[in-house]
Amino acid sequence: MKNNLAAMTGGLGNILNKPGDEMHAKITPSGRKVVTVSTDNGANKHSITEYKNKYVTTQSFPKTK
Predict the structure, then answer these.
(1) What domain range is 53 assigned to?
(2) What is the pLDDT of residues 21-47, one digit of tens each?
(3) Percentage of the residues of the chain whose pLDDT score is greater than 70
(4) Rounded to whole angstroms, what are the CA distances from 23 to 5, 50, 53, 65?
(5) Cβ atoms within 10 Å of 51's Cβ, excluding its own
(6) Taking the complete model, does pTM exceed 0.70, yes or no?
(7) Which residues, listed in sequence order, are joined to residue 16 by a DSSP beta bridge?
(8) CB under 8 A, 24+ apart: contacts of 41-46
(9) Domain total in the chain
């Protein structure tokens, strides 16, 4: 999961660049590992989910007006 997060964000040092940027990580009751990153005061959101069978999905959600 660490490698996927680094690939999504351009490296671990580039995750949080500006005030208001956020990163959350959790393990759900069903065993999924979820990392979400919100940048530009919520204008861009990215998530990575790793399922128990090691399948990984990556999603990006740009904020639309």
Answers:
(1) 2-62
(2) 888 999 999 999 999 988 887 788 889
(3) 75
(4) 11, 16, 24, 23
(5) 14
(6) no
(7) none
(8) 46/8, 46/9
(9) 1
